[in-house]
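Researcher: Please generate the 3D structure of the following complex. Treat every line as part of one assembly.
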Amino acid sequence: MIDISTILIAALNGLANGMLFFLIAVGLTIIFGVLNVLNFAHGSFYMLGAYGTFFFLLYTDGIPVIGSFWVALLVVPLVVAALGGLIEKFLLRPIYDADHIMQLLLTFGLVLALDHGFKMIWGSDFRSLSTPDALAFQIDILGRGYPAYSLFLILFGAVMAFAMWLLFTQTNIGKIVRAAAMDRETASALGINVPLVFTGVFVFGTVVTAIGGVLASPLRTIQPWMGIEIIIIAFVVVVLGGLGSFAGAFVAALLIGLLSSFTFIVYPDFEPIVPFLLMAVVLLIRPAGIFGVEEA
Amino acid sequence: MSQQTFDRMQQVVGPLVRRVHSDHLLVGVSILVAMFPFIASLAGLSDYYLGVMIDFMILSMLAMGYNFLFGHTGLLSFGHALFYGFGAYMFAFLLTGMWIAPQIQIFTVAVLLTVVGTVIVGIVIGYLCVQRGNIYFAMLTLAFNMMVYHMVVQFNDITQGSSGIILPVPEVNLGIITLDLMDEWTFYYVTFVLLLVSVGILWRITNSPYGELLATIRENSQRANFMGINVNRYQWSAFVVSTVFAGMAGVLAGIRNFVVSPEMLFWEMSAEPVLAAVIGGTGTFLGPIVGAVVFIGLEETLSIVTANWHFGLGVLLMAVVLFFPKGILGTYYARKEEIPEDTDDEIE
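Model: Done. Output below.
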């Protein structure tokens, strides 16, 4: 029966999923906000984060200290960052001045190549990871056990969101990035190394997404279509919150997480469709998105 | 002759030259495709190759319709599998008698109803997708595509989930003749005729005032807006037109495979018309057909090497975008310098 603990646990599940959605969508939206490129292959970095964790733990199994989830959380995003840097430098940089259509086509080609490339290497078996030992316990919530890992995920996401907000609004780095986003030429004339900023932002976005992938790996099935599935959710998030909007991504991601999770208690079959229905409703009632951000 | 008169003459004669040019290619390809079954049987090729040619024609129809939207309005849809799959599923529902009384499971009625159904879905989805400009359009089409995919997999009591629906291929009674679509040769020519009709319709629309108006919007949507053209509405209508051909292609693909399955709705299916159009040349009328030849050729060769042959497609798409953004036919036209760029539908 639906009692208060069911609702509370659904809310926590929703927040945990929402934080994951946020980590993916925020990378997408920051990269778009600064580089003005929508990266369809963004979800592939999330997938790489999850697969990376799986194989890191597989190969380091039994090695003391190194063979742990927490080391993977440090190492895997760095490896993904390197790949992100290469992609930015050799694939995206030549087309910054090209038509948006060309950029979309290029990154769409990149999804096909990356997702099927990974599938070639790792096969299409479904894989899963267990929760890291340190968090493999349950916390009592109104008499019901709730996995500590999910609470950790909510907390981690919130801390990351706050840290990113500080970085972009309160520091010099943030100012430089916003200047480069606003006007490339002027920023360049002021002595800002714009190409470096662009590479930095792209790598930053992929790292955040890869962290999302690492964090998701104990919770979700690791399979070849996890990238495309998460990118679709990230699209729904940015349609609701506005491309390039940090706050929009945060609120929309949590909203979708919560709504999906509550739908699951009432009518489980509808859970995968809820984000899209929400998107359709918003497009009908408020085409400009919940926050009314002007489109790019 | 002064430069001015020369330019003027070019303006007048140019379109005619282009028309003849396109016509030659179209007639050439048509004759080849029409003769293929005879040539194949003379050369002792198996019916398998007839099937490959049918795949090529189905993809051509899908890609031609797709490029009507992309080439003419610049709207990049990553979700055309939605309509391809919808057409196939609706047709299967109608023919298996799930939606209508078994007495009226007539092939032609089912096809017509499917077209109507696809148009309605196209109107609804199209309306939602054109609300926010080009970048959002690409995201929204893919998102709604995957929504329908999830629905088909999720509500498996209606759609039979991932196993799909077996399609009973009926005999088609056209009054004068009865066609047996199970027969490979018959189905080949039915597909061929439908493709020719589709190309004809698209040619007619492209060269109508409506087609030229769409081109105006693509070239400068802001100016079109100032001219008092309701840009969204025209983009929306072009979207609906293009979905009809996707739905028809889906119906044909269902008949060809005897089964309608969720893969027809998966995002990879949406990539196929994109690839065919871009490889062939989105700025040209017949580019998608050229692209479809390349696509099917790659599918046939690469899928022998690896099941993940989409990897090669991804790499190819990136290479085309970076090095030959005009595609095969577009680059060919540019090289010949007869036509600096296919401007069939451009308004000076």
